[in-house]
Specification:
This protein is of the alpha/beta class. It has two domains: 3-242, Aspartate Aminotransferase, domain 2 (3-Layer(aba) Sandwich); 246-379, Aspartate Aminotransferase, domain 1, CATH 3.90.1150.10. Helices cover 37% and strands 15% of the residues. The protein has helices at residues 3-9, 50-62, 74-82, 99-108, 124-130, 153-162, 175-178, 213-226, 232-242, 245-264, 283-289, 306-315, 345-350, 367-379; strands spanning 67-71, 90-94, 115-119, 135-141, 166-170, 188-192, 206-210, 269-273, 296-301, 320-321, 331-333, 358-361. α2 runs parallel beside α9 and α3 packs parallel to α4. The longest helix has 20 residues, at 245-264. It binds pyridoxal-5'-phosphate.
């Protein structure tokens, strides 16, 4: 089955009772038992729910994995993976990791004796230097946020295999339409389905896809034992969002390309960060491991001040200032005060997050309108 068919059909059958085409929202907490204690497919909805099962089967197919396990948020999914580790285990991850993952690794699992190292993952030697007998997981995120750097998934997975270490890829920014890390050697893929999979900014949801059924079983155990499960309505919304994933992401990629080109030659713009540019340091790798270059674009201003950035952020009409990404509508954000506000200035500037850096999540509106909107906002900058 090709991708565009999978999003509609994989794991999804018309309802066996009524023939309903759309997977029903099974809003029930428990199921009738034919006799007390008889094992049935569905017993209690923390353990299993048919709406959730349909979503899990669908996403497993999209990522070419053996099985998927859903959670109440992206971070709940990441948390569940960490709960399969033991005290003394170590994680190696990127130095521009998603802030919420960084907080979970250091502030929560740090207290349980799990240590995390953060390195520049575009440099394999830096990863290899941190690998010891305690290393259990290499945690990749690519493209990164908000600098849109590209990590070579296949090369990191090869290195990890050599040392018998697992590789997990946070595939939120790319979505399975653009990138399938399990095909490149990764063991586990994690998503904040809140973003491109859901795609309509109306749900918080997370999921993990495993290459091997054995690891999925460990996560299913954690899903039931710890209980951070999504409700059936949220599973329905993600399932519905996925049906147009390929169309939405393709349009977002086309719009992002147009917006990045426009910004690149604008007199008030300093740097534009977009992996689709041939002179982007990760362009060659992105071209190999992604189908297109994604819907995210970051840029800085020649007037590198917070005030100048604020003028752009308050001057747009279609780009709404908000956290999050991957929805049908375009969003604009200021990493230095929003997502990365907790990082000291010298540290964030060292990775390129200057006072004027602006991050765009490009939606599926008309590209001309998006460009006109940014042009008007940039005109207002002194
Ligand atoms: C948003 C996000 C998360 C966290 O997901 P939630 O659904 O907000 O819990 C994790 N990783 C990345 C890359 C994200 O963008």
């Amino acid at each position: 089955m090709k991708f565009a068919t999978k999003v509609i059909h994989a794991g999804i059958e018309p309802d066996p009772v009524t023939g309903a085409i759309m997977t029903p929202i099974y809003q029930t907490s428990t199921y009738k038992q034919s006799s007390p204690g008889t094992k049935q497919a569905f017993e209690y909805a923390r353990t299993q729910n048919p709406t959730r099962t349909a979503l899990q089967n669908n996403v497993a197919a999209l990522e070419n994995g053996a099985a998927a396990v859903c959670f109440g948020s992206g971070l709940a999914a990441i948390n569940a993976i960490c709960q399969t580790l033991n005290p003394g285990d170590e994680i190696i991850s990127t130095n521009d990791l998603y802030g919420g993952s960084h907080r979970l690794f250091t502030k929560v699992f740090g207290r349980f004796g799990i240590k995390s190292h953060f390195v520049d993952m575009t440099d394999l030697r830096q990863i290899e230097k941190q690998i010891t007998s305690k290393t259990k997981m290499i945690w990749i995120e690519t493209p990164t946020n908000p600098m849109l750097r590209i990590i070579d998934i296949e090369a990191v997975c090869q290195l990890a295999k050599k040392h018998e270490v697992w590789t997990v890829v946070d595939n939120t920014f790319a979505s399975p339409y653009l990138q399938t890390p399990l095909d490149l050697g990764a063991d586990v893929v994690v998503h904040s389905a809140t973003k491109y999979l859901g795609g309509h900014s109306d749900v918080i949801h997370g999921l993990v896809v495993c290459k091997e059924q054995a690891y999925a079983n460990e996560l299913l155990f954690v899903q039931n034992a710890a209980g951070a499960v999504p409700g059936p309505q949220d599973c329905f919304l993600v399932l519905r969002g996925i049906k147009t994933l390929h169309l939405r992401v393709q349009r977002a990629c086309e719009n992002a390309r147009a917006v990045a080109q426009f910004l690149r030659y604008h007199a008030k713009v300093d740097k534009v960060y977009y992996p689709g540019f041939e002179d982007h340091e990760g362009h060659g790798i992105a071209k190999r491991q992604m189908k297109d270059f994604g819907g995210m674009v970051s840029f800085s201003l020649k007037t590198d001040t917070y005030e100048a950035a604020l003028q752009v952020l308050s001057g747009t009409h279609y780009f709404t200032c908000a956290e999050s990404l991957g929805g049908v509508e375009s969003l604009i954000g200021h990493p230095a005060t929003m997502t990365h506000g907790a990082i000291p200035k010298p540290q964030r500037e060292a990775v390129g997050i200057t006072d004027s850096l602006i991050r765009l999540s490009i939606g599926i509106e008309d590209a001309d309108d998006l460009i006109a909107d940014l042009a008007a906002a940039l005109d207002s900058v002194c």
